[in-house]
Design goal:
Elements lengths: L2 E5 L17 H10 L4 E3 L10 H11 L2 E9 L7 H15 L17 E6 L3 H4 L13 H22 L2 E4 L10 H10 L5 E6 H6 L4 H7 L4 E6 L1 E2 L1 H8 L5 H6 L3 E2 L8 H11 L3 E5 L11 H14 L12
Helix pairs in contact: 3-5
Protein name: Sugar phosphate isomerase/epimerase family protein
Organism: Paracoccus mangrovi
GO molecular function, one term: isomerase activity
C-alpha cells in the first residue's frame, strides 16, 4: 500500500480560465515543485497549453507529472455533448502523452485519470451545501446527464485507455447523498469510478469517511480539502455562490480546519488504499501569492499524520 500526495492548480485560484487574474501555469509548476509535490492535476480545460511537447518539457524540467485531467462543465444539457466529447478528446490526448505518473503498490487503476464534474447552473450554485433547498433534476434531465457522463467515460476508456472518475461537487447536480447514490446506480463501474473529495463532502453536510466507506468499491482517486468552520457557518447563512465562498476563505490549509485527517488516514490504511490523493484549496487567484505557503503547510501537515509518500520521478 502506498498513498501518494499531489496537488492542483485550484490551490492558485485556477478554476475559471476566463478569470483575468490567473497566474501563469509555469509559475504554478515552479511552486508545486518547491512545495515538495511530485505531481499535480492539469487544471481546467484550456489553462495549460494543449501542446504535449511543450508541457512535457516543463514537467520534466521540474520532475513532475500530471495525475489527472478535468471535465468541469454542464453535464446536464444534451446539447452540450459535442463540446464535452471534444474536451474529452483533447484532454485525454494530452495527458496520455505527458510523463506518466508512477504506479503505486495497491493502486486499483493506473493514472492519469479524467475527473468528471457537473457545473454551470445558477440554481444549484447558490444552493451549494443546502440539500433542503437545492432543486433536483427530473427523470428526463437526469437521464440526459447520465448519458453525457457515460459517453465521456466510454470515449476516454476506449480511445485513450483513461479511467473516468465521477467527482461529486458542491454547486453541481451531483452533490448530495441521494444524488451520489443515484449516479452510482446509473453509471456502471465498468465505465467509471469515483473521486471522493473530503472538502466537498463536509461542505455539503456529509461525513467524508462515511461517503468513502459507502462507495469504497468505486473509489479510485481522492481529493483532500479542509474547511474553516467559522467561515463555513457564515457562508451557509447567506445566499452566495460556491466559488465566492472559496474566495472568502472557506477552504483553508489542511490541518487548520475541521476535517479529521488522522481518522481518514486510519480508515484509508485499514482499507489498504494505494494510489493518489490530491490536495486542493480553492481561492481567489488574486490571493495566489499565499498559495506556495499554504500548499506546503498542507503537505507538511499530511506528512506529520502519516501521509508521507512522494513520487519525485515520473515513470518513463
Amino acid at each position: 500500500m502506498s498513498m501518494t500526495v499531489t496537488t492542483a492548480p485550484c490551490c492558485w485560484g485556477v478554476d475559471d480560465i476566463a478569470n483575468p487574474h490567473l497566474p501563469d501555469w509555469r509559475l504554478v509548476l515552479d511552486e508545486v515543485a518547491a512545495a515538495g509535490y511530485g505531481g499535480l492535476e492539469l487544471g481546467p480545460y484550456g489553462y495549460m497549453p494543449l501542446d504535449a511537447a511543450a508541457v512535457s518539457a516543463e514537467l520534466r524540467a521540474r520532475r513532475l507529472y500530471i495525475v489527472a485531467g478535468t471535465i468541469f462543465d454542464n453535464l446536464v444539457d444534451p446539447g452540450n455533448r459535442i463540446r464535452l466529447l471534444h474536451q474529452t478528446h483533447e484532454i485525454c490526448a494530452l495527458i496520455t502523452q505527458l510523463p506518466k505518473p508512477p504506479l503505486a503498490p495497491g493502486q486499483r487503476v493506473e493514472a492519469p485519470y479524467l475527473t468528471v464534474m457537473d457545473w454551470g447552473h445558477d440554481e444549484r450554485d447558490f444552493a451549494a451545501g443546502h440539500t433542503e433547498r437545492a432543486p433536483r433534476l427530473d427523470d428526463v434531465a437526469w437521464a440526459g446527464m447520465v448519458a453525457n457522463i457515460r459517453a465521456i467515460a466510454r470515449l476516454a476508456r476506449d480511445e485513450y485507455g483513461v479511467r473516468a472518475v465521477i467527482h461529486p461537487h458542491a454547486g453541481g447536480y451531483i452533490e448530495f447523498g441521494d444524488e451520489i447514490a443515484r449516479i452510482a446506480r446509473d453509471v456502471p463501474e465498468s465505465e467509471a469510478g469515483f473521486c471522493i473529495d473530503t472538502g466537498h463532502c463536509h461542505y455539503s453536510g456529509m461525513d467524508p469517511i462515511e461517503v468513502l466507506q459507502t462507495y469504497w468499491d468505486r473509489v479510485e482517486y481522492i481529493h483532500f480539502k479542509d474547511i474553516d468552520a467559522a467561515k463555513h457557518a457564515d457562508v451557509l447563512s447567506r445566499r452566495i455562490r460556491f466559488f465566492e465562498a472559496c474566495a472568502e476563505g472557506v477552504m483553508c490549509p489542511i490541518g487548520q480546519g475541521v476535517i479529521d485527517y488522522p481518522a481518514i488516514h486510519a480508515f484509508l490504511t485499514e482499507q489498504g488504499y494505494g494510489g493518489y490523493i490530491t490536495v486542493e484549496q480553492e481561492r481567489d487567484p488574486r490571493n495566489s501569492g499565499g498559495s506556495l505557503a499554504d500548499v506546503k503547510a498542507s503537505r507538511d501537515y499530511l506528512k506529520s499524520v502519516g501521509f508521507a509518500r512522494k513520487h519525485t520521478e515520473p515513470a518513463e
